[in-house]
Queue: 2 jobs
Job 1
Amino acid sequence: MATTHHQRGGSRPTLRNEDLDPAITEVSRKVIGCAIEVHTAIGPGFDQSVYENALSAALKRDGVAHTVGHEFPVQFAGQRVGSSRASMFVDDKFIVSVVADEREVSGFARSALRAQLRCADLGLGLIINFHRRRLKDGGLVRVLNPDKIESIRGDHGDHGDYDDYHDDDHD
């Protein structure tokens, strides 16, 4: 069930964890827990690759299947026209975009991840910005692919873009 909330001056439906596949929710919580652990241990200020490597090590330790630097094919008119690199592809279920940028996660970053989700036919992506002082202060952004979510729910109306500043359980 979608609820409407107001963020950044607009109204858009927000999906709660119970609207997502429980397996995806469980794995995303593990990823977020590992990201918080990495951030607490090494803090902000390093290059993106440091955080990708540290998060990968934490995920391996916790038994979470993932691929670093996964390439997704980009198709147009039935032909492969290129590829798109994701920081991580987790448990064959969702994409994690790792960033280390002093700016807040931009609308462009959300749109880019949403485009990756569409080309991979996935419902969920996470943007984790390790440069933030605290991850819960804008460093964790959940991005949903409305096409995939609507097809799962059987809803085909235009509901705009789906994303949250952070996961519901880490307010």
Job 2
Amino acid sequence: MIDVTEKTVLNGIGLMIIATVLFSIMHASIKFMSTSMHPFEIAFFRNLFGLLVIAPWFIKYGFNPLKTKKIKLHVARSLFNVIAMMSFFYSLSIAPLADVASLAFTAPLFASILAVIFLKEIVGIKRGIAIAFGFIGALIVVDPIYSSINNGHLLVLLSASVWSVSLIIIKILGRTESSVTITSYMVIIMIPLSAIAAYFFWETPTLKDLFFLMLIGISGTSAQMLLAQALRQGDTSIIMPFDFLKLIWAVAIGYLLFFEVPSINIWIGSMIIFLSTLYIAYRERVLSKNSKVQKVTQPVDQ
């Protein structure tokens, strides 16, 4: 008979698997829509329709989720977040899905480095080696010696590095703010920010476009919420290995819908990156067992 703890962990694993599917659906939909619509406009609608997912919170709690004394940090987080999102969306429009999924795993590597600089965290030899190996994996994916570097690759790495700044701010906000408050401000502030960028590339969407744009917004925001809940229900070292499924789904969707076949260096590099970030997540979990502040090790999933 399964006890309550095991059931909770299994629920967390299930939520994580569903989240990876939803993230992959969002990524594929973005790539599909980018053939007829600029990625910046897609980013705006992703935020706009993402509001539908958090609307029930406001129906239930009113404006309580918006109570904060850290509005400047929320604005800063959203600014970095929207830059990372637009870079990520643009990369999906010009790079294979598997490549984007692989390099997106580098966000925790950048976050670990920034945590040393801004949060004065101490990175031991083991984590330092893991970070180094992670970036070696990124080089293997990009393959600068035997192939030309795709602009999409550079944009994913830019997105990951900028997103890592957002992760550091989330760490700081997480000390005093609830996840509901953090998510609410992110969506509300990012809507006008992304609207400014979308304005310069605006094309009125058709009903068919609106369907896919709604799918992008709802699947993306739902996936983020499921990921957060999964990490609450199970240890990071148990839940995060299933994040690698995003690459599996990306390869499958890329092959079936976009006729993309990843090379062997994508598999090797992504495995190295993922194992490095997984180890970093495990070490942070061990080192912060007695701490009330949970470390943030989420990948770039806009």
